[in-house]
Amino acid sequence: MFALDGASGDFWVFGYGSLMWNPGFAHEEAVKARLFGYHRALCIHSRLYRGTPERTGLVLGLDKGGSCVGMAFRVAARDEAAVAEYLHQREMMNYVYRDLRLGIRTADGRAAVALAFVADQKNAQFAGRLSAEEAAKIVSGARGTAGPNEEYVFNTLAHLREIGIRDHWLETVGRLISAG
After folding, report:
1. 125 DSSP 8-state letter
2. How many CA atoms lie within 13 A of 71 on its CB side?
3. 79 vs 133: CA distance, rounded Å
4. Residue 128 CA from chain centroid, whole number
5. β-pairing, 11-15 with 111-119?
6. pLDDT per position as a tens digit, 114-147
7. What digits encode the pLDDT tens for the residues 49-94?
8. Is the dihedral of CA 51, 166, 161, 177 positive or negative?
9. H or E segment to which residue 147 belongs
10. What pTM was estimated for this model as a whole?
C-alpha cells in the first residue's frame, strides 16, 4: 500500500514538532501530510531541556493511536544516509524515541513511507497518555536549560498556526496554561 517515492528512489521524513519548521537537512520537497497510527502528544518527560529531574517538563512525541498532521520532507536518495545520521544524532540522544518507517499520505494524495520518530513507551521518560489538564499542570512552571516549558508549548502552537495545522488537544493545553 505504501512505498518509497517509486520513480526516484527518494525517501520521506515526517515531522510533527520542531522538524516541521526547522528540519535542518536538505530536502527536495516539503508538504503537509498525515501519518497514520500515531498522534502528536506531550508524552515525553523532559528532565533537562524543559525541566529538571526534580520538576520535569513535557515535550512532544508521537504516541500510539489516531493520526497526526505534520510536514513530510522528500529527501533525495543520494542524501538518505547523511540525513538519517543527522536525524539520529538530533532525535535519539536519550533514546526516548524509536525511529520507524510509517505510512503517510501527503495533502495532494500521494501515499508513501516516511521515517518518523515515535515515543518509546518502554523508556522511563515516557509520560503515558495524559489529559490536557494533566499536561498543562506538568508544563506550568517547569523550566530547563532551554527555557520555560510553557514557552515550548506556545512556540509550537504559533508555528503550527503559521503553517496552517490545527491541533485541538495541544490548543486546549495552551489555553489551560494561559488560564493559570
Report:
1. T
2. 21
3. 42
4. 15
5. parallel
6. 999 999 999 999 999 999 999 999 999 999 999 9
7. 999 999 999 999 999 999 999 999 999 999 999 999 999 999 887 8
8. negative
9. strand 147-148
10. 0.89
